Amino acid sequence: MDVFNRLRSTVSNLSTVLPGNPVTREYEIIKHVGSAGPGLLWKIFQATKRSTKEEAAVFVLEKKQLDRYSKRDREHVMELLKQGVAQLTRLRHPSILTVQHPMEESRESLAFATEPAFCSLANILGETENMPVPPPPELKDYQLFDVEIKYGFLQVSEGLAFLHNDVKRLHRNLCPQSIVVNKKGAWKIAGFDFSIGANNPQDPQPSYRSLNLEPDLPPLAQPNLNYLAPECVLADSNDTASDMFSLGILVYAVYNKGSTLYDANSSVASLKQCINKHLKHLSSGRLNALPEDAKEHVRMLLSVTPDIRPDAHQFSKLKFLEDVGVKTLQYLDSLYQWDNLQKSHVYKGLPQVLAQMPKRVALHRVLPCLVKEYANADMVPFVLPSVLLIAEQATKEEFCSVILPDLVPIFRLREPVQILLIFMQKMELLLTKCPPDDIKNHVLPMIYGALESDAQQIQELCLNIIPDFAHLVDYPSMKNALLPRIKRLCLQTSFLSVRVNCLVCLGKLLEHLDKWLVLDEILPVLPEIRSKEPAVLMGILGIYKLAMSHKKLGLTKDVMACKVIPFLMPLTIENGLTLNQFQAIMGVVKEMIAAVETEHRAKLEQLNSIKQEQSAAMEMTNPNEIVPGLTLSTKANSTTSNVYDDLGISNFSAQSPNASASKSPTHKLKQQSLSMEEKQRLAREQEFQQRIQTQPSLIPAKPAPTQPAHKPKDLTSTLINSNLASLNIRSPTGSNPFSGSPGFGTSPNYASSPAGDFSSAGMSPAMPQWGFQGAQQAAAPPMATPARFAMTPQPLNRQPQPQQQQQMNTSAFDNLLPRLGSGPPMGAPRPTLSQMGPPAINNFGNFVSAQPPVQNSTPSFTTPAKPLSKSEMDDFLS
């Protein structure tokens, strides 16, 4: 509840005090940050100017704070305060608080605007009158650093020197309430309420009117007696040495956390007693809190004799103020008077000094001086290292609010090229500190500009650092902006080192990309690189190796077999390769071949197992056999045949029946390993085949022909037989002269019958060469022996029975056999005409229809066969 009450009180103060003051028309009040002035009557508010949005501070005095005093005292205090603000407005010096808007008075308040202020030195030392409740978080645990203290004293001494030597004016109330610390941390003199000018400013030794201290005046109407010089009370005189005494007490108070040498309790009489007690006999133990090199000079400043005290100029030259940090801050404040060469010397050594400075001093005191140089592009490369060093020490919030707004315009600069070089070296810092929107809008475009730069050094540095911050770049920017520029630079650059760095950069980026982005964007660009230097080839090889071996990526067998391996193989014979480089390329190629082989073999084995599961039972017969019962001899395979057999294309060429039949399932098992199910299936098939072969041949029963009751006389046969008898011609031995031609009763599906099989039909192998049967035989009934023509099935592989007597040579008719598409393969013997056998002829000289040959156990032969002469052969063929 307390918090809400305080907040309501603050809001009511702003609404009741400020709206009636004209200052609020030009300045927008933000928050209450501190207090300053006599009795800390002035409230300090953080504000911004409405027209320019510049930061400022508004000092407000509420008149109701003086209501406890009498009208005379209230008017006296108001007069002193107005006089002090007016005097402050007229003074302009780096060590004096700058007034931006003069004092405005309303019925409730007085107000004026100054440069941005943090608080007063009294607030830092622990005085909290007129402070907001609770105090600002910036003031919590706020401690002054040694460099801040020393440089603050230096600034105050410089301000006093300006007042004493140039303006001829005394301050006469130099104390922590009169010193304002601005937003940058600089100490500025204010509180000129009791200031007085010289009576004779033109004289080398001007005189000043004495300070009339009336005992009945309220504390607000007199200076802070704890800081007042002794002569102002004891001798009723004052000069520049009086301000130096106040400076000595100020040094003592700062090093003693706000405690003064004595406390006068706002009483002049008490002040006199303290002077006699503490100052005239000042012991060294009272100064133990001061730095060792400052004790002697502070003792001199606190001397009762004014002539012993150092003046402002001498104080600024004291040894204890000659600190490296103090000198650096002093140089930075005076750099606007120097030329570029002098500035460059200071900025070059600044990073070493910043490493020893506190972060607050560097951020709020040094940085503003460096930012002023952004307007001079030639000096930007000299101040950027220091700015980025301060950025490393700052938090992300401090970077975004204090450093980044001024850096954004510098991101767009391309000249001098050192600017890009410095940013590239600190790119990880920028990507870590900057918000995502600023990275996308400002930082990444700067990287793209560096890749498109003409400076080789900038390009190489950019390529070297891109992998370090790749994890901070979002995926769309990586895919659509960064990668295309790297690929274009790799293809178009004329510098070998830049091309190699492009390839190395792409290789390091692979782990930040996905598989398909690598396959679609990275790998296709590698064959387009025309350069074949060994360094380039090793860069390309590295990308392939990383893409193949990385667990997140991997190359498919199609990409390796169709694109990568055909591209890498010609690279192995490049002339510039060393042995190690050649071995590296061959090693990657072998790994890819092994990967393709393993993956594709697994696929084929899977497909093969599926086909075997879906295939039918093994073929029972050999479809390549043309003539049953014939065994064809095979020729020895030549080396050429073996080569083609090993290539696995024998399925596209004709095979011999014997070779096909000879391949048993056992032989196939040797070709490849079979599963248990496949072995069981083959065993069942073998058993079934053996069972078929051992079964007896089936003999179909042919019905006996019926004899007609009255058989008509065949006139044609009678005429032919009578003519034959008159000619007395004997039939040739062996077979019908027309047995070699197809269509005369010969069937390719059955084995030929031996010559003795025709004896039952009235034909004898001993007949003359061209004769037919005699008259006696011709007169025999045509169906005299029907039982001899009973047919029995022959086995498929039945071999022809050997001839016991010489048969006629019919090899000349072998070429008349038809060539079937499924005949025996090349090199296998064809059956001869004599092996085919003659067709059977009945008693009437007609050819018997194609039937299986009749089994004849006792063939009869009369006379040996007479071989055909050449003339007979010609007559027959014609």
Automatic annotation (TrEMBL):
Signal peptide boundaries: none
Kinase among keywords: yes
Molecular-function annotations in GO: ATP binding; protein kinase activity
Ranges of Low complexity composition bias in the record: 731-749
Xref: SUPFAM superfamilies: ARM repeat, Protein kinase-like (PK-like)
Biased composition (Basic and acidic residues): 676-688, 869-878
Family: Belongs to the protein kinase superfamily.
UniProtKB keywords: Kinase, Transferase
CDD domains linked to this entry: PK_SCY1_like (cd14011)
Keyword Protein biosynthesis: no
Pfam family, any one: Pkinase
Region (Disordered): 655-714, 727-769, 820-878
Species this chain originates from: Rhipicephalus zambeziensis
InterPro entries: ARM-like (IPR011989), ARM-type_fold (IPR016024), CIK-Related_Protein (IPR051177), Kinase-like_dom_sf (IPR011009), Prot_kinase_dom (IPR000719)
Annotated protein name in UniProt: Protein kinase
Compositional bias segments (type: Polar residues): 655-664, 843-863
SMART domains: S_TKc
Protein kinase domain mapped to chain residues: 27-321
PROSITE patterns from the UniProt entry: PROTEIN_KINASE_DOM (PS50011)
